Amino acid sequence: MGATATIAEFIVNTGTADFPEDSDGKAIKVIADTFAVILAGVGSEVAEPLQRYLESARESGASPILGTGRTASPETAALINGTYGHSLDYDDVLSMMPAHPSAVILSALLASLNGKPVSGKAFIEAYIIGVEVGGKIGLGMTNEHYQRGFHATGTLALFSGVAALAKLHRLDAPAIQQAFGIAASMSSGLRRNFGTMTKPLHSGLAARSALTAVRLAMSGFTAAPDIMEAKAGFYSTYGTAESDPEVTARGLGKPFVISNPGIAVKKFPCCYATHRAIDGVLTLRERLGFDAAAIDKVICRMPPGGMHVLTYPRPVTGLEGKFSLPYSIAAGVLDGKFSLWSFSDEAVRRPEIAALYERIDAHETESSRGDDPLFDKRSSGSRGFVEVEVWLKDGRKDQIRVDVPPGSPSRELTWDELREKFMDCAQQAPRITTADAAAAFSSIRALGKVDDIRTISNRLH
Fold this sequence. Notes:
alpha+beta; two-stranded antiparallel sheet; CATH 3.30.1330.120; globular
């Protein structure tokens, strides 16, 4: 049996009873986080052009666009919610892809409901299947897919969305193979667009394409049933000589991604590759009690490849600031905390920030590689370790090594931390009251007992 057929059979035959005991709890945390970041996107830079796009389309539909009170066709709702979810780079990280699959999965699932009640339990099951399939496709493709310039959130998390939809709507294996074949010809996303509105659009396009592919397959549309493994198929075209669809097929459920290695939930609203440096700066600031005026210099040592996607040494916009290590360090030194405002145009352009740049030395070094045999397979934000060293004008100095950032699977955010993030994100959607946000968060936390997921999406609509 080929890899495409094996994936399809896995989706059909695997369910809640097969998952590890801790799966639901871990999945619910990421689902809560993803609802939050979609709401935050309503207040982001992408909101206004997306609103104009929606109005120019003049279409009708009943699928909710969260946080806006607006509805649209299923595909358009998936596009906008998916873009909102990645617009602030505040969404989840699955380093083995490496990608941000959850906004793709949730946006596609919510748009597909079409007035049909779906239990929280079924929603969780579909989500976990989507994460599993996408993660193992990433493993089979290898990290070189990303290094070549593809943004895996657009190219690979698309298949997470297809798998989740196929599970939720109980497609049979042949139909799933057709959906994968259709979706493979819609896979897209280039890293050159990082730091622009088109980066989060990749997430929206993937959600829309996943929904379109599944709906077409359910309608009898055909595609190559062996698209993943065939010559001129997905792996041979989008991958490298090291890419192997059989690695994906053999790895499904062994172990389940949701539990091992798990998914990271971001504590800071910016590129994951900056998070260990930010954590180091904030820890040293608290330890030494310094402010910006006290700084003589800050040295940040990153592992090889750790700055690969951090392409803006002197950002001029909030979007560029999310991919700037010097800015992230400077903001940590100056403010001692991070919020959504930290990555606004106003925050990035502060003269106090510019004054700190000459005192910051951020660079890659072999000494931060570590001894991990899987180093070259890890993403920029999870390979090796990061060292931050602070020198103060009064002669004091200190340094810290950070191996994993807060919010990573081994340093999970607490429910209190997650609630704080959720409520902060919900404030970016003016139509959502504090009471509705709090009630929705409580319902999501008990998602396995919710009879109809629409009771949550309606509160957050």
